[in-house]
Amino acid sequence: MNGRTNDSSNVVSRRRLLGTSGAGVLGGALGSMGLANTAAAHTSSLPESWDLEADVVILGSGGAGTTAAIEAARAGASVIIIEKATNPGGNTAHSGGVVYLGAGTARQLEHGVEDSVQNMYAYLEAQMGPTQDLERLRYFVENSVEHYNWLVESGIEFGTEFFTGKIIQPSGETGGLAFSGNEANSPFSEIATPAQRGHMPAGAGAAVYAALKATADTLPIEWHFNTQGEELLVDADGRVAGVVVRTGIADPSTPTEEGTPVSATPAADSMVLNVKANKGVVLATGGFQFNQEMLADHAPWYIGGYPLGGPHQGDDGSGIKMGAQIGGDAFNMSFASPWNFVYAPGELCQSILVDGMGRRFTAESNYGADTGDPIFRRNHGIGWLIMDQGVLDRATEAGALMSAPFATADTIEELAEQIGVPAAVLSAELAFYNEQAANGEDPIFHKHSEYVVPLETAPFYAFDYGINRGIAFITLGGLRANMNSEILDVWGNVIPGLYGAGRVAPGISQEYYVSGSALADCTFWGRVAGRSVAAV
Ligand SMILES: Cc1cc2nc3c(=O)[nH]c(=O)nc-3n(C[C@H](O)[C@H](O)[C@H](O)COP(=O)(O)OP(=O)(O)OC[C@H]3O[C@@H](n4cnc5c(N)ncnc54)[C@H](O)[C@@H]3O)c2cc1C
């Protein structure tokens, strides 16, 4: 090893050479000249000697990175994992642990859940949004049972509890199988037979990751912590040949005597190392919700929301930037999943959720992203959950409420004045809703009749369901990848030697997220990346 203490001069000069503007100008010039624009346009001056070397170098040790490492090592490749935090696991280890699996898993069969490849695909095709890569979605669904079995063989014990009602997710003590998206909501319940697919182990994400890490620990994988990937190195043929990393990176989740470090700050004695990847580099660095600049550039609506992630705050978009710097196609960067669940308890869905003008904008029983996203994108951060005494009583009896009412009034007009929405609009909205609800109908948003009851019993209550509530979100956009988890450039060409999985290169959750689709995504496509790169 011949690492240079705090010597970043090479990195800086290469950056200047390859910086975003330079790459963009070069790409633009080639395009306008009508020449083939390939990743070969991006090359680096490779170091004369390398500090570390392996067949496969993986950046990030969450679900995507660790499953890629397992599969690559099992296929006989030597593997190095570079992780900037002090501990492995990323957000995967801090997550709720719900994994979206179906088409007839053993747990589904045990509980008599009717599901099939066709049924699961029909739901996800309708749910995941028009920009979803359907070829990747189909492959994922066709292999969902195999992936379930692989996760179980890797030591994940999905809970045996079975849930039929509206819950955000099973308890961490039991785990279990539950609806975890809009499967039972209109219009999806008419498109596909509703099936519970949210599989969760007791112990949540920590249990998911502990099993993956234990499996990885049976294999000869080299781990480097507090070390950050900073720049991809590309040879003269346009193949990613390695990566520049920096050691001594501080982790905010491990405070020192000096206090809590800011994410990703290098220590005084940090070193820059060149790491050679004989077969390829796998990006598994997560999304970018902790990068304020990237949010401002791509998804400014969500600034003011609560970036969701472990205390290491690893999702800073560095992997997306590294890939884009050498021509990777960053797509869907304006999409995020902000959760503003009206349930649980499910009885709260009998309320109405209105914007700052007093108008409903979605079915209250919908998945948390549907009740969250419009608050950021359309409603200027405002959302009010309006209910009468009847709903409050039923909900309180069913379970603890997550917050106290913001305002209470004997008439809906007085309530509207207290929360600053036009009284005439809210009162007309409620009158129309009540008129339809008297027949158990919601003709505008098609809320399930179970949750459609007139709101007529004073006093009325308004709960603040806007961004003041601290609506958590993750970003969904990232680098475009193909069926082999190879990263593509903006022309659709493979960037040789570069792979990606998880939030940095979304596979099935590209525009929309239902609970479990991120863990399923990162572990499934991480495995694909590991097998693909090892096969080079
Ligand atoms: C509280 C919470 C609950 C959640 N619940 C669920 C759930 O129940 N189901 C579900 O499907 N999803 C859930 N999610 C989302 C899900 O956890 C993540 O989207 C998923 O784990 C992402 O996996 P990943 O492998 O892509 O990234 P991560 O698991 O985040 O791993 C990325 C790793 O890369 C490291 N890294 C970043 N940049 C660099 C760099 N430049 N060099 C080296 N290392 C780097 C990070 O430190 C991190 O360790 C939840 C998330 C949170 C935070």
Protein described:
By secondary structure, the protein is an alpha+beta fold. The chain has 17 helices and 21 strands. The strands form five sheets. Strands 1, 2, 3, 7, 8, 9, 10, 20 and 21 form a nine-stranded mixed beta sheet that branches. The protein has a four-stranded antiparallel beta sheet with strand order 14-15-17-16. Strand 8 and strand 9 form a beta hairpin. It is globular. The two termini are 26 Å apart. Flavin-adenine dinucleotide binds next to helix 3, helix 4, strand 8, helix 12 and helix 17.
Provide the descriptors you would attach to this structure in a database record.
single chain, 536 residues, alpha+beta, nine-stranded mixed sheet, four-stranded antiparallel sheet, 21 strands, 30% helix, globular, disordered N terminus, binds flavin-adenine dinucleotide
Please provide a brief summary of the model:
The chain has 17 helices and 21 strands. It has helices at residues 9-18, 20-32, 63-74, 90-94, 106-110, 117-127, 134-142, 144-153, 188-191, 204-216, 292-298, 318-325, 373-377, 389-398, 412-419, 423-437, 517-534, and strands at residues 4-5, 52-59, 79-82, 99-100, 176-178, 198-200, 221-224, 228-234, 240-246, 271-283, 306-307, 330-331, 336-339, 352-354, 384-388, 407-409, 460-464, 472-475, 478-479, 486-488, 494-500. Strands 1, 2, 3, 7, 8, 9, 10, 20 and 21 form a nine-stranded mixed beta sheet that branches.
Q: Care to count the β-strands?
A: 21
- Molecular shape: globular
Helix-and-strand structural type: alpha+beta
What integer is the average pLDDT? Answer: 91
Q: Nearest-angstrom radius of gyration?
A: 25 Å
How much helicity do the residues have? 25-40%
The helix count comes to 17
Question: Cα distance, first to last residue?
Answer: 26 Å
Largest sheet: 9 strands, mixed
Low-confidence runs: 1-36
Bound molecules: flavin-adenine dinucleotide
What share of the residues does DSSP label as strand, in percent? 15-25%
